[in-house]
Amino acid sequence: xxxxxxxxxSPTILNASNHxxxxxxxxxxxxxxxxxxxxxxxxxxxxxxxxxxxxxxxxHVVVGDERCLPSSKDSRKNxxxxxxxxxxxxxxxxxxxxxxxxxxxxxxxxAPLVSGMVVNGVVIDSAAxxxxxVVATRAQAVTDMLLKQQPDKFMNKTxxxxxxxxxxxxxxxxxxxxxxxxxxxKKKFEKKFIKSITLWKPPLLSNKTWNKPTTKAKxxxxxxxxxxxxxxxxxxxxxxx
Length: 241
Description:
five-stranded mixed beta sheet, four-stranded antiparallel beta sheet, 25% helix, 7 helices
């Protein structure tokens, strides 16, 4: 029988958006990854976040699902970028739309973002998506354009957070606009969201490269090719050591 999770809120991250999200912490490397469907929340213990370390960390949120997670092998070889997760998700949406012959689920939410794009002389719209107009090469080109032109609708991250109890609520994404990561007080979180949570989850334990807090940036590092200044950032909060 599966043990019931007792949240310690160090931190707790709730997906209050309409889309599947991949969330993880960063302190030199990425760790404590989890996939959250709408209404689900992940709660880390203080030990999972870094025990007695006073070093701040950040929280990343990207659009994606279980199929988009990197393998341990890729992570160890530093082959994975932050953008790889939403990129895999977008390409998967195109494939689903073409297979189904209609826009359903995530692909329907993606359609407004790509409508009107011109790739290699082909106008990308809803009809092109379901009719197979977005072949593999075009799908990759459209994905690259989306992530370059509208990154805030696919990914976001917090500023530096002090260790301790925290309550973060994720909204937005894709056709709902910019991904927002709101920091709430315990009182406000419990009053507004606690009853709406459909499932509590611990961080994933199947991939140790996502679950090893460290201050060493080179150890199991999942590199992002872009400079931090190019990534969307929620308000900074620097730890007092």
